[in-house]
Amino acid sequence: MGIPKSVRFENELEAKVEEYLEKNEIKFSQLVSIAVEKFISEPQSIQLEPIDSKKWEQTIAKAYKKHKGAMDKLK
Predict the structure, then answer these.
(1) Which residues of the chain are under the pLDDT cut of 70?
(2) Strand (E) positions, 1-75?
(3) DSSP conformation class of 25
(4) In terms of Cα–Cα distance, which of 34, 5, 41 is closest to 20?
(5) For residues 31 and 50, what is the distance between their CA atoms, to the nearest angstrom?
(6) 72: which of 11, 36, 39, 54 is 20 to 30 A away, CA to CA?
(7) What predicted TM-score, i.e. pTM, was given to this entire model?
(8) How many Cα neighbours within 13 Å face the side chain of 4?
(9) CA distance linking residue 16 with residue 18, whole number of Å
(10) In the chain, what is the greatest distance between 2 CA atoms, to the nearest angstrom?
(11) For residues 31 and 17, is the Cβ–Cβ distance under 8 A?
């Protein structure tokens, strides 16, 4: 057995976990172990999606305005 760890879920996920535990009569630690084992044993990949150029320009303008002071200090 490993060292005990704490896990914090968002409210919505916590409700789902509690419901699952009640239905399946499984301990929380067993569920977490099974879920983590499954997650790390499967290949993970990040899929990039193109962004609309108009949205990109808006985001850049907003970021530049928000961080203008920090960018000026770097000059």
Answers:
(1) 1
(2) none
(3) T
(4) 34
(5) 36
(6) 54
(7) 0.54
(8) 2
(9) 5
(10) 61
(11) yes
